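Exam revision sheet. Question 4 asks you to relate a sequence to its structure. Input first:
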Amino acid sequence: MQSRTRKLEEEVKGLQEQLELCQREAEAAQREAKQALGERDQTLAQLRAHVADMEAKYEEILHIEARCPQDSLDRLLAKLRSVKPQWDGAVLRLHARLKEQLRQFGLNPLDL
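Answer key, structure tokens:
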């Protein structure tokens, strides 16, 4: 009877240790998820601010275009051509980072 009791106590102790380990891992995963969501929200806020800035500039261009259409379109195209490589690089870096974060959480980006 005593050996059975000892065996059960050891089993309980082992299960408690496993439970504590799982709880620590769950807390770490929650912190990581919270951080990833915070980073995502920050990125979205930055992108929204940038979009608002672009809208304001576009509106300004449209007002100028009303006065001299061809010159404004040429300048707009030149600006778009000069900025495109920067945007392409930024988009690729952001895409790769978010794809890696999804993988860290066990999600396949292609499934989304």
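Marking note for examiners. Residues 63 and 103 are 46 Å apart (CA to CA).
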